[in-house]
Amino acid sequence: MPSGFKDFMEINYSSTIQQMKEGGVSEIEFLDYLINSYEKILESIICNANKDESDITDKQLLSYRKSIEELKHRKSVLLDQKLINQKIELLTSQNKKPRKLNDNLLIDSKIINISERYRIANEVCDLRKNIDIKNISATEKHILLAHIIGCTQQVARELFNGTQQKRTPVRDDLINKYLKNLK
Fold first, then answer.
1. Same domain, residue pair 18 and 82
2. Residue 121, number of CB atoms within 10 A of its CB
3. Measured distance CA(146)–CA(12) in Å, rounded
């Protein structure tokens, strides 16, 4: 067996690919290099085997060809992954629309959180009192609140029982100043 081919076959693929990446070479380019090198070496082996008696067996040749086919398969898998990633990136970039904030909805240039919206609604519209007087179940009250202020039923329930304010605390100075301007 020619020593050059043996050297290529015993290459530590993962450490070599890491070195190639550090050198600015992609894995696909590295696979192209290996495939071309292996094919040239295999061609050389076959030519030399035809010229003189060689100790290369058909089994070894098949093994070499199989290695080349495995590299080609790995390359096609990488190309497929690259194509899929590009399609996903394209689709996600098309779906991402920049969120435009309406300055009129900000209070002192700040977005208000759900607890602050609930507090404003309570102060201005007596929301909690008006929902509580309805002759409906607690679950229906949570759903009604969720519809009104645009949140999930779970968040509405937590707003009713006060646990949501631990997650999204009310900035009292900001909200009090806003409520004072409304009166």
1. yes
2. 17
3. 59
Provide φ and ψ at 175, rounded to 5°: -70, -40
List residues bridging with 107 in a β-sheet.
Answer: 110
Encoded tokens for 136: 């409906």
pTM: 0.46
| Distance of alpha carbon 100 from alpha carbon 183, whole angstroms | 29
Indicate whether 81 and 108 sit together in one domain. Answer: no
Q: Mapping DSSP to helix (H, G, I), strand (E, B) and coil, where does residue 54 land?
A: coil
- Give the C-alpha separation, 144 to 138, whole Å: 10
Give the Cβ contact number of residue 157 at 10 Å.
Answer: 19
Residue 12 pLDDT greater than 60, yes or no? no
The answer on pLDDT for 134 being more than 60 is yes
Q: Which structural domain range is residue 177 located in? A: 103-182
Report yes or no: 156 and 146 within 8 Å, Cβ to Cβ: yes
Q: Are residues 87 and 110 in the same domain?
A: no
Residues 132 and 167 in one domain: yes
Give residue-wise pLDDT tens across range 94-120.
Answer: 666 666 666 677 787 788 889 988 988
